[in-house]
Structure formats: structure tokens, C-alpha cells
Amino acid sequence: MIAPPDRTPLPRAFFDRPVLEVAPDLLGRILVRTTPDGPIALRLTEVEAYDGPNDPGSHAYRGRTARNAVMFGPPGHVYVYFTYGMWHCMNLVCGPEGRASAVLLRAGQVVEGAELARKRRVSARNDKELAKGPARLATALEVDRVLDGTDACDSGETPLRMLTGTPVPSYQVRSGPRTGVAGEGGDGDLHPWRYWVDGDPTVSPYRAHVPRRRRS
């Protein structure tokens, strides 16, 4: 049986490019999460690019650590991190191996398996909110650090896989400052590296960085 064009796996060469090329090109692509209960498919509508040593907002800006090791390649693998002691966020590694860069998956439309996503996102008021934000996306897809390093280009049995989907035309893609990034990395003039589908209701609202207050 031949898979339809929009359901063919993305090749590794797709990710083996500069992160600023890959990030907007991910919009409209399909991410499939295979679970014991069945698959959940997500159409990506919002992403952010992080460019390693050239990017003060990147986890890899100061070099390799045990936490960010997956960012250094190979491309096409999944980088999952835990933040604020509460949430997981999911990224796709890009660029040549050895040079850390990745795309944060910020939001998407659940196009298959919504009933499974709803069980994980019981606070969502409607299906548009199931994956509206990076932590919500990871929760809806049941993604955690166990999946860190997963090969999303593997055409075999794999818990996460990227498919071709339907790329979004360039005139529908918008860009701007990244959400919640502090300092120079949050400057929209220097790093307008958040990309989203214009007018899509699943895109998360922009929020500037707010410093966390220390408890007295």
C-alpha cells in the first residue's frame, strides 16, 4: 500500500539545513505520536527557531551539557526538556551534526486522535486549545523526557514521526519575537524567529518575558 503524499515521512535531509530555513518550513507538516491507545496526529501551526552558539536564547548558547546533548545532532531527532519544574517542551533538531540548533514546537491542530488528546488535556475548553502552546502540545501528545533523542525520521515503529503534510504558503507565514525569551534573545528586531500561520485559531498568544520573582 502506497501512503498518500502528505503522509510520507520527512527525510533527514529536510532537517539537515539551517534552522531558519527549517522552522517556517515545518508549518503545515504533520507530527504523529504513536501511543498504546492509538495515534495522535498534529498539524504544526506555530514554531520557534533556536540557533545554538549564535543565539543567546538557546539552551546550547554556552555549549554542550547533559541536558542539551541531543541538540548537537544528528538532525531529525527530538529534543525534550523539562521547565519550571512542571512542563515538558518538544523540539526538532536541525542543521549539521555537531552544531546545536533546534525548532521548538509551540502549537498545532490535532487532526487525528482528538479523543486521546482530550484525556490528557482535560482543562482545554475546546479542541482548538488542545495544543495551543508548547507545554500543552507536549501534554496532549504525552511527550516527556523518556522520548528525548527519538528519531522522528525513522519510518519504522517509532513513538514520534514527522510527515510531509501540506506546507503553508509563504504569504500565510508570519514572524516576530519569540515568546517569553529574555534579554537580547527576545529582541524581535534581532531574532524575529517565531513563525506562525496567520489567522490560525490554534496559535498561542504572544507574551513577552516577565522576570520570575524570588520568594522572600
UniProtKB/TrEMBL annotation:
Membrane-traversing stretches: none
Region (Disordered): 170-190
Superkingdom: Bacteria
GO MF annotations in UniProt: hydrolase activity, acting on glycosyl bonds
Enzyme Commission number(s) from the entry: 3.2.2.-
Pfam families (alphabetical): Pur_DNA_glyco (PF02245)
Keyword list, A-Z: DNA damage, DNA repair, Glycosidase, Hydrolase
Family: Belongs to the DNA glycosylase MPG family.
Name listed for the protein in its UniProt record: Putative 3-methyladenine DNA glycosylase
Originating organism: Streptomyces musisoli
Source taxonomy: Bacteria, Bacillati, Actinomycetota, Actinomycetes, Kitasatosporales
